[in-house]
Automatic annotation (TrEMBL):
This is Saccharopine dehydrogenase. It comes from Gilliamella apicola. Gene3D superfamilies: Dihydrodipicolinate Reductase, domain 2, NAD(P)-binding Rossmann-like Domain. SUPFAM superfamilies: NAD(P)-binding Rossmann-fold domains. InterPro entries: NAD(P)-bd_dom_sf (IPR036291).
Length: 359
């Protein structure tokens, strides 16, 4: 086993992890997958269903590996809240890919890497929507503009879609303000505020509200957009208005304590069997003749958000495996090659529709 190329998937038996493992098995059957987590029974059961995999017990709070397990990449598909897995990867000179961080945790992790005088393997942070693949697509299409004024990312989350338990931690941040760059200046917003109605398709009109994602930090860095906003809404406007009311009225504050954890989890986590995931990106800017241009980029994942997240994660792993990356910190949103991204998305049934210059 020591001579094999290994990839450790922490949380590899979760909803997203299983799909990442299946993609790696399909496109990289020679890679030995290590399915890690605290539930060894679940990890073993899933590993046995794969063609080239082993299960291990792995605790993110006290990371360690058996002597015969030497992965070239550690992929965190479960939250690494105290950066202990990140620290472990750096100390053991193992490449690290993380797709799970909201913005403040991302900033903390980047700062943590700076505490090391030298890195001996690449560190890739790719926590923007769908493991950074949406931003990667936006960056590709933004090259058609001579200047980008603003980018609005609108996400339609189906109540019938699959979701992992980690999504609760991401969503259960309704009382924490976050920063957004508007007209080149930083502004603070509350989650589920400043709503607007978006038409995702001809018959799909839904309310979406501001939401904290790293996209709002990453895209201004690489596209120089003056404004970047991310909003999310459920495919049920009654639920959207309900959450907006809970936060605006202060009721959510009253139920934010530990004694209400199970209640909030019931509100936030009721995964279905799978449904279509829709993302509509509105890009405003200037063309090469300085004419104002408004364009839309529509991305549809028929198998849902977890499938698209898994594809994004797989693409990031592919980039780490195939690019000669220096031993430094990377944003995964900028790593993948355009041709490979388009090829995999098309193969996996993801639909991309770009309307350049629409009014």
């Amino acid at each position: 086993m020591n001579n094999q190329l290994m990839v450790l998937l922490i949380g590899g038996y979760g909803i997203v992890g299983k799909q990442v493992a299946a993609l790696l098995n399909q496109y990289y059957p020679e890679i030995h997958l290590i399915i890690g987590g605290r539930n060894l029974t679940a990890a073993t059961q899933f590993a046995n269903s794969l063609s080239n995999a082993t299960a291990i017990n792995f605790d993110i709070h006290s990371p360690q590996l058996p002597s015969n397990v030497q992965p070239q990449i550690i992929v965190t598909l479960a939250n690494d809240p105290d950066n202990k897995v990140l620290h472990f990867a750096i100390e053991n000179q193992i490449a690290y890919l993380d797709i799970t961080r909201w913005t403040d945790k991302l900033k903390t992790a980047i700062t943590h890497t700076h505490s090391f005088s030298q890195l001996h393997a690449p560190i890739v942070f790719s926590s923007s929507w769908m493991a950074g693949i949406i931003d990667n697509i936006i960056i590709q299409y933004a090259t058609k503009f001579s200047h980008v004024e603003n980018i609005d990312i609108n996400i339609l989350y189906s109540m019938q879609d699959k979701a992992g338990i980690n999504s609760v931690e991401y969503m259960d941040r309704m009382l924490i303000p976050f920063e957004v760059i508007i007209d080149g200046h930083t502004q603070s917003f509350m989650p589920f505020s400043d709503g607007k109605q978006v038409t995702f398709k001809k018959d799909k009109h839904f309310l979406v509200y501001r939401f904290d994602t790293p996209d709002q930090l990453i895209l201004p860095l690489f596209i120089r957009a003056k404004s970047v906003s991310t909003r999310i809404g459920f495919n049920n406007n009654m639920i959207n208005r309900f959450f907006h009311f809970l936060i605006r009225s202060g009721i959510w504050h009253l139920i934010s304590g530990k004694s209400f954890n199970s209640f909030r989890q019931k509100l936030l986590y009721s995964p279905g069997k799978g449904d279509e995931h829709n993302i509509l990106i509105e890009i405003n800017g200037l063309d090469s003749l300085n004419n104002s241009i408004k364009s839309t980029l529509s991305i549809t994942s028929p198998k849902g958000q977890s499938h698209l997240t898994a594809i994004g994660t797989f693409i990031q792993i592919h980039s780490i495996l195939n690019k000669r990356l220096a031993n430094q910190v990377y944003f995964g949103e900028t790593l993948p090659d355009k041709d490979f991204v388009i090829k995999i998305l098309k193969t996996e049934g993801i639909n991309i529709d770009f309307n350049y210059g629409c009014v």
